[in-house]
Amino acid sequence: MDFFGKKCPVCSVVFKEGDDVVVCPKCGAPYHRDCYMEKGKCIFPSLHKKGETWKSPDEEIPDRPLETEDSFICRRCGHKNSKDSIVCEKCGDFLSGSFDINDNNSKKNDAPEIDPDIFPGSVFFAGSIGDSENEFGRDDDFDGVKSGDLIDYTGVNAIYYLPIFHRIKKTGSSKFNFAAFVLGGPWYFFRKQYIKGIIFTLLFAATRIGENIVSYFWANDLWKNAQEAIAGPGARVNYVQYYNWIIEHYTLQQMLIMCLPGLFGLLTWVLMFVCGFTANKGYYKKSLKAVRAIRKKNPGTDEEEMRKKIAAKGGTHFGAAFLITVCSLILYGAFLYFLTTIN
Question: Phi and psi for 113 in degrees, rounded to 5?
Fold first, then answer.
């Protein structure tokens, strides 16, 4: 009898290939040999009295992995995974269950979709892989790269990113990445896209520094002078009067200077939206390129070792994101201090 996917009635651990299993000759209940030796007898005497046969409480592979105090036991292969794992380290099955990436009305997807870059390590979906042709396991093709490689590369956030990658592959469109929108450069460092991270960090710094320099040295004085000329220092003014006076007394160059801080601020918002709308598609292309490069560089490597190389190259780098954020804040604070003390 095949006990694969069933649980030992003593320890509740799923039987996996290679386990030493013993079976009660009276009722047919399976046990790990050590579990049976621990009890010293079958734990179903009521079945013996009735002459009944033991039946598994879950004849089918369970919808969810077995959760123990310190681990998740894969529902398919029985491998013991750490509590923070989202995919099985051995077979690649999702430990959160399964989901249909095209079934927006599925009850399995009722949980809110939260960006894992803001809340890393969270599980957002449930269900099983392989229930329909629209779902994927480890061998589905993503523009020449297997889904299993993308699972290894994206790490604990695979359950979030693979449906997005599938959407990009099929339709060419992505979804808005709120984390990239809010964090900008540090998000790219977090996802190990260091060149883009440097570029966007410098662009955001340029807009903020430009806005502050123009405001501090020129624009603020022009706005203040216009207000004082109309109603005196600190007085409230009528905005129609205010702008009419500016048009009459200021040159075009001066008016452009007054508008520059607002334009710098608008440019900051543009950069934020660029990050939000392009981040996922850029990460997909980067993932494909990285996986192809690793496999090309390591031909003939054992598959288990290859998976480790892909996982090491991918994943996230919280330290880099934290460091660039702290450095940016320190430098920006130093710049503001210098700006206010320059006179």
Answer: -90, 110
In a structure prediction context, what are the per-residue pLDDT tens digits for the chain, which is 343 residues long?
567 667 888 888 888 877 888 888 888 888 888 888 888 888 888 888 888 888 776 544 455 566 666 677 776 666 777 776 767 776 666 665 433 434 444 333 333 343 444 434 333 333 333 322 234 567 888 999 998 899 889 987 887 888 899 899 989 998 999 999 999 999 999 999 999 999 999 999 999 999 999 999 999 999 889 888 887 766 677 788 888 899 999 999 999 999 999 999 999 999 999 999 999 999 999 999 999 999 999 998 899 899 999 999 999 999 999 999 999 999 999 999 998 888 6
Q: One-letter amino acid identity for 256?
A: L
How many residues are present in the chain? Answer: 343
**Cβ atoms of residues 108 and 100 within 8 Å:** yes
pTM greater than 0.85 (yes/no): no
User: How many other CB atoms are found less than 10 A from the CB of residue 91?
Assistant: 15
Q: Please answer whether residues 207 and 271 qualify as being in contact, where contact means their C-beta atoms are separated by less than 8 angstroms.
A: yes
